[in-house]
User: Fold these one by one.
Assistant:
Number 1:
Amino acid sequence: MLSSLAVISVWRITSGDWDIPLSEVIYFLLNGGSSPEAIVIRSVRLPRLLCSVGTGGLLSVAGMVLQGLLANPLAEPYTLGIASGAAFGAALGIMTGAFMTMPGAFAGALGALALTGLIARDGTNSKIILAGVISNAVLSAGVTFLKAVAGDRLGAVVLWLMGSFSGAGMRDAYAVGTGIMLVMIPAYVLAPVLDAMSLGRDRAAVLGVNERAVRIFLLVFCSLGVALCVSAFGVIGFAGLVVPHIARGIAGAGHRRAIMYAFLIGACLLGIADGIAQRLGELPVGVLTALTGGPFFCWILCGK
């Protein structure tokens, strides 16, 4: 998978409206320069590559963690309402002012998590999923309401909600890197605990797992990581739902190994999707992932 990611990275950073040889790309990255080619590489292609592959990996690992945490193959940031909450907060931030987008996404993600927890008071895994579906429906309606009253900001809100890496900069890449650390480090450290929790609540309790504390901890960190991506690039669905199933099919059920595969597979798939979307006239990548992810997930279910 590392070699596949390397090939995709070379493709993304060397090709486009202006093809640049790999030798020149390496030279500009190592030595800088003020030529048009150097500016395109450092200011446009490299940040977009880092953001697309980083976001794909982050969303995939978040989906893997949530599925293991709740022992449910349908758990992911969107079915739990986390991404919709971040989308609602960020859309509200766009209408208030561009500088409020990221704080709004954070607040929306945590608010959605609180709403899901309030609905699922008894804390059973199945009820949390249903509560997430309810939260997602409520917050999606809230986003629709914001679009209805957006006025002259409607275009910005709608385009942002479709999900796109167009215009990504190094500041966004740093935000994605922060999100990756927020999700990957706890997930990797607590992978054995996730293995126990995926067996069910009773078995996890027998193994001495403080399920409630671990659940709250990982849900909060996944919410914050997803909020960083949503605030920067909008709604990009299905990566967190589909990729974990592919990763488990390759790596097995153990979370520590499967998490690494999920990150690499998600990074590859979203890197490819963004490259295709860019060559289709900057089609929003969220639209492309939804169009391909839905049928692909149905294929996975039918295959099982």
Number 2:
Amino acid sequence: MSDKSSAKIAKFRDYSRVRYFDYILLGVVIMLLFFGLVMLYSSSAYTASIRYGRPTYYLRKQLLFIVLGFLVMLVATVIKYDVLKRLVKFIYWGCVFLNIIVLFIGRSGNGSTRWIRVGGVQVQPSELMKIGIIIFFAYYISTHTESLGRNAFNIRILAYLFIATIFVFITNLTTAAIIAFIGFGMLLIASRNKKPLYALIIFALIVVAAAAFFVISKSNAEPGSYRLRRIYYWQHPEKATQNAGFQVLQGLYAIGSGGLFGKGIGASATKLGNLPESQNDMIFSVIVEELGVFGVVCLILMYVLLLWRIYMIAVNAKDMFGSFLAIGVFLHLSVQVILNMLVVTNVLPNTGVTLPFISYGGSSLLCTMFEIGVVLSVSRQIRLDRIDLEEDF
């Protein structure tokens, strides 16, 4: 064996002891959070001044959430993700329990009952359920590899998914759909026999189409209830009034006035009392108005980079459990980003989906930061031992 080959083997052995850490993923998260703070202050300063007398009210609270989020992410990153295997039943059933009790002691807001107060802090259990289903499905799939694709296995795991979503569905239809998408997507990726799952997808689409047709026809006849009004004004945004459908219409005005490069940061007109909750679900419309198509493309590219890094971690994870943890986070963030943008542009009815890392909110941000911490923990277990030795032999 040549000296060059011996040196290559020695280098390989050195790398095999080195742990990987995805600094690119961490950097993208920091950029998104910084961008979110800028746009949050721009979109909320007027509303905060009117409501609380301080233009920085929402900004300060979001900064606190970010600090707490980084602490949560740090803990999740440092602790080996294998510990989640020992806690999986507690996490899953704990999340289910919280989503049950929110039906009885939940606090209401904007027509929905989604929060419970714990020690002076409001928690949204439906956000926790996203984490619960990712961890549970990753564990269940990785510990039943011999059963993947069998109908009996599919029925068992889908029963757990049904339990996870049914109580969320009562209070938050959109979040229930996101949870169902995450769980079913993880199962579809893992399954060796996808035909029964494809058949189930077709059946579900038929049911959803029939239900949508019924709801739309009902909303045209009597748009009286809270949810039916949302459907009605999704179909007819031009009929919005100050009391109903106004948010969607103003969001469309904001998007339409953005142009290629926008009006400039802070120059949005619709956020000045015309766009309700502009710092929450509708912040994307302010981004379009102030930064234009160029700003939106930059934001989308940041999300694409974020998802690409999570995908690479999933592909290179040391075990199946870690891989499916990253896959679950990938599915969650991708569908939530897409849903928010579709809602704001009125492609879908207004459903109250936050834009990850950008929208104001504690529960959503803390849960998302925990998920990123778990993915970074998976990345820390990747060994740098994939060096092609054959080139020099």
Number 3:
Amino acid sequence: MRQLYESQRVMRNMRRSAMQRGVVAIIDVGTFKVACLMLRFDGRERRSEVDGVSSMAGQSAFRVVGAACTQSRGVRLGEIETMNETERAIRTAVQSAQKMARVRADHAIACFSGATPRSFGLTGTVNLTDIEVTEHDLARVLAACEVPDEAAEAEVLHAQPVNFALDYRTGLSDPRGQMGKRLACDMHLLAVDPDPVRNLVHCIKRCDMELSGIASSAYASGLSCLVEDERELGAACVDMGGGVTSISVFMKKHMIYADSVPIGGDYVSQDIAMGLKIPATTAERIKTFSGGVVAIGKDDRQMISLADGSGDREKDDRVVSRSELIGIIRPRIEEILEEVRKRLDIAGFEQLPSQQIVLTGGASLITGLQDLAPRILGNQVRIGMPLRVRGLPQAASGPAFSSSVGLCLFAAHPQDEWWDFQSPTELRARKPLSRAVRWVRENW
């Protein structure tokens, strides 16, 4: 664990150095697309670390000066499968964004959705050396959190305290300066398989850039799509990407659970291609422009051309009704939503004061999803758009870019750094503890 935290600190120092130079590249490596945003930090005073973190924290510190997107190649289920193809796609996106921004970035911050994310709920308790809580006491209680054996050899992406308790008082967000005798902490730790992370780091280096930060796309999407009240009272962000559907649950402005479903929008396109026996590119076009999940009366009479421009007259004359197309799409979307529901049930989502669910990602744009999703996930469901940030092009403001925009906010003010004190002792692997949201049921 020591090496993992040290590697995070090394990237953190590089990120600060890059921000001082003024330009950082944001790279979202997805199964369907690779997006790149160029951020210019204008030197404005960012929110002080003693003021807390809000949904708008750090937003005024940067401006998007370049943006580009290209088709992803060599990525499957959010993980790099073919290094050369992925490198080529990243280079294309980065060079296009640099050309638009007329500036070169040597450092990048990336997010991805694969590597089998696993959430752990950790707890630690210490007696105070003095009556007043200091940063040294926070470092001791964070170091006292017991790390499960399963996470000991994994790559830690995010580790954030979600609740502090001082003597009989709980629900504290920052106990520094308060008086007490015994300090307890509940921490959420998100760990992933290390090999996909190493592959991503190596791929970024092959693109002549240094990786200065890495985040889960589930966490980034939650930062950009959930409003402050939702993150405070409890909400889930479901990012329906091309290969993976990422899930993050927020409470008290912190992520307390994350998971993923290895099914995404590309599976819908594959179903259409196999069901109608058409090329994948034609299936993607039909899904985008004519797809849906809720049929109405006139869909039986609305015909969709399956022409693929091959020149074969017999194939180009084929048509299919929209109701038949919906019959192919809907079962796969229902499967995704059912899997999301199962994971939310495992996380204890029903215990949160608010049970708002926000759907985002490219696959959330399919027609009729807002009517179908409440039947499976619950009544409080909406389609989420990413937060508007300065300089963001209109073409990059849709749900498909939620994780990219969230990564911009993460780059400007990552919450993990907030609690990065030099611990007096190293974290040690011990017996597994309860799941990530146990503290919610006990304290709220």
